[in-house]
Amino acid sequence: MTTKFKGVMQSPVTPFKDDFSLDLPTFERLLDFHVRTGATAISWPHHKGESLNLTIAERKLFAEAAVRVVNGRIPVTIHVSALAVEDTMELARHAQDIGADGILAITPYFWTPSLEAIHAYFVRLCRSIELPVLSYNSPSYLAGVEITGDLISRLIEQLPNFVGVKEASFNSEKFLEISRAALAMRPDFAMLTGVEYLLPSVPLGGIGSYSAAGSICPNLCSQLFDACMRGDWPLARELQYKISWLWLLFRDQYPSSLKGGMVMMGRPVGPTRAPLPTATAERQAHVRSELERLGILETEPHGW
Amino acid sequence: MPFYQPGLLHAPVTPFTRERTIDFDHYAKLIEFHLANGADGLALPMHAGESVSLSDGERRTLVEFAIKQVNGRKPVVAHVSETGTAIAAALARHSEQHGATAIIATTPYYWTPPAAMVLEHFIQVGSAVTIPFFLYNAPDEMQGAKVNPELCLKLIAQLPNFAGVVDLSLDWQFMIELMTDAPRMRPGFQLLAGTELMVSASAIGATGMLAPLAGIAPRLVRELYDLCRDQKLFEARKVQEQIAALRQALKPGGVASLKAAMRVMSRDCGEPRPPVLALDAAAYQKLVGELEAIAALRAEARDW
Description:
The complex is a heterodimer of chains A (about 300) and B (about 300).
Chain A: E1 7-9, H1 24-36, E2 42-44, H2 56-70, E3 76-79, H3 85-98, E4 102-106, H4 115-128, E5 133-137, H5 149-158, E6 162-167, H6 172-185, E7 190-193, H7 198-201, E8 208-210, H8 218-230, H9 233-251, H10 256-264, H11 281-293, H12 296-299
Parallel strand pairs in A: 1-8, 2-3, 3-4, 4-5, 5-6, 6-7, 7-8
Helix pairs in contact in A: 1-2, 2-3, 4-5, 5-6, 8-9, 10-11
Chain B: E1 8-10, H1 24-36, E2 41-44, H2 56-70, E3 76-79, H3 85-97, E4 102-105, H4 115-126, E5 133-137, H5 149-158, E6 162-167, H6 172-185, E7 190-193, H7 199-204, E8 208-211, H8 218-229, H9 233-250, H10 255-264, H11 281-292
Helix pairs in contact in B: 1-2, 3-4, 4-5, 5-6, 8-9, 10-11
């Protein structure tokens, strides 16, 4: 048996109207765009989807839209991480009720919880639903809070629906610590990475990634994944360097510049909510010139 | 500057007598062991060789001794990191005069200078010699002092003998960004894995590896290096996982664990110098058990 959470999975941005309210028709178009251009799964709302700038009611509304629009064509997971753990629990139950295929949850924000507290959190979350649960490790954004190999082993042992991790340390040793613990116990455990860091993770047992730039360059995402799975390392290197350059371009105040870039690809999704800035016309022009230099404008789809 | 590709560099420990003086008899034996067990070259004294616990005079004597003992059979790379720029530059000059093939240096110890001064430090150390200079990026060992790709590109522009980076950040973002730009500015620029976690680094483009664990598990280290050199990265995963287990077992005690493990392998090199404490009996017994659990260690030599 292999996991259904693999390949380059797309996490759509959240489109807003000019008054910063949710733009449902554009969100529906974007979901459909990702499905048509090779996404292997949809996951929403990641930090890139401004999850923490949305109310819980807004998150539920768009989660329902995601499940409805994707309509079983590929798996849909819901990112349930919220400042308050009680909100996370509620979003998880909601995801199950609306027919999502799984949830994704980061280690709790703000409190720099101990390993025991992280353990208790994932046990409670996984036992509250029957859906598959993917965990999310992001030590550099969370003051060093991280999932260890021992913790992963304990969780796998106790929880049949604990099926994967988004390992976003982008660090060889941390990835290996988790992957060798997890894959020894559950060979179909989904070792996923953040952004599109497939080249360094696939040879270590990685089976896919989420995506930063997929709304700009879906073709590049698919090509990179295929090259890695084939073990065509020279080609994979070339593609990885290219897509990682885009990450450098978008990383600063993510996803503002990404949304700016989408304008240049003919897929405008509106502004970014405060406290994040919205990409200025100058920033958009800079992004466009980089996309041109990398050949993205000619090789990737324009418009919806 | 002659082109030098280091390949697999073994990083020996520094043996001490009971009185904590350098034990040159055992050092000669250890050097012979490394040369007979797969080293393409030696790098010394690295942090694993307790460089920071040696006096300036001892470091010079040690490097002279090692180069004489090796006697041209393989290259010797001298580690010249220091707090003061002039002290490091003097060590670098001394190493070149006595026949080192290349030098390697970190950011300065203790001080946290601004970026311009870090650049100045490396320029002065590197330009003290005409042999290749490798920058050692080890943020965890250096209390977070990070080298970024921008600094490396500036160094390429100003330092003709800047040959590459030995990376212990293990950071995929850093390595990919570096290798996207640096080899374009300086053909032949090299990335070396700074420890025995080479699979991801190799996928990204690393051509060499620095191996502090080579005194303990030279076969395993050589197997990993050869598989990576041949770009058999999927095949390298199992070996990589065994080495990651070894690294994890040794990590808590640092150099004390390294020396304890040398004793477990019947290649006793004494205890570390103060302020590093030797493992106590309980920690030693725990380590013995952990090493026994690593199947791949059974194929390693248990003598000199």
